[in-house]
Amino acid sequence: MSAPRRWTLAELTRDSKRARDIFRKERLEEPLELYGHFFETFAPVFERLIASLPEMASHEMSSETLASLVSDSDARTAFRYLAAPPISEDDLKTLAESTLSASALRNDPDQSRRICDTVLHILDPHRFPWVRRRQDPDPHEKERAIVASAALVAAKKVETKRRIDPSKTQETAVKELLSGLGFEEVPRREIALPDAAPKPGCFCGESKFGDTRADIVVRLHDRRIMPVECKVSNSEVNSFKRVNHEAAGKARTWLKSFGHRATVPAAVLTGVFKAGNLETAQAEGLSLFWSHRLKDLADFVERTLG
In the structure, what pLDDT confidence band is assigned to residue 66 with cuts at 50, 70 and 90? Predict the structure, then answer.
């Protein structure tokens, strides 16, 4: 049976440099448009919310006002970002013993009071110093608070998008490549035994393969199963976790559970990786492909037709 190419250390070093260069170019040239979009979205939300702080601090905010606030997703996010540091929605629910449900707040003034008291207790004193002084903010304090708060949310939103989008982009690219080769995408499923995997010429999205999950599970034309992990790394240290600990660890488990002749564990890589770590992962049975050269993956898949 056809086997994926095993790369030499020199080739892994060359491709690691190429992947790093692409990563640096994308990060350095990433436009500020996304950050600006989030900032412009949240600045007016914080302006309205900050105007309501005196009402909240004096215990005069009605349940209806708070319910209207949490019913809007952007306002609910801004509300959590009044805290220092910003508090997660789950933590706020736990600390305030509340569901953050608009209908529940309308019918339970005590619950509304607990939420306001919780946020006031952990309110950022550097952005909102006038609240503890029990004074109205001067125009400069108010403007600084709006800018700082909107920037805080915008930065977090961009960070989250950076973390999630590359892996989704990877998965989409692999799926599009497979579809272009004539493979059919089928529903996700749990694959405890080989018979439960997609049929030859088919693939499915994230599914449980044996005891762990794979981002994509492909049934090659020769009936072997290829679980694919899509890995994005922004540093060599991070790459050890992504490839050697996670992807290679899964590969060892899959090979042990389903056999070396029936399984082709693979990883598609984007970002910054240490060539030596990749060489080790490859020696443990993990086949490596690069996002910047997916033709290698296409060539291997097509060879399984024979």
Answer: confident
Tokens of 184: 């059919």
The 10s digit of each residue's pLDDT in 163-182 is 777 778 899 999 999 999 99
Q: Where are the extended beta strands (E) located within the chain?
A: 184-186, 190-191, 202-204, 207-209, 212-214, 216-219, 225-234, 266-272, 287-290
- The DSSP secondary-structure symbol of 247 reads I
Coil, helix or strand for 126? Answer: coil
Closest to 292 in 3D by CA, of 181, 207, 169, 195:
169
Contact criterion met (CB below 8 Å) for 225 and 263: yes
* pLDDT more than 70, % of the chain: 100
Q: How many other CB atoms sit within 10 Å of the CB of residue 28?
A: 7
Measured distance CA(5)–CA(104) in Å, rounded: 59
- Contact present, 218 and 198 (Cβ < 8 Å): yes
Instruction: Sketch out the chain's domains with CATH numbers.
Output: 9-29+181-303 (3.40.1350), 33-158 (no CATH)
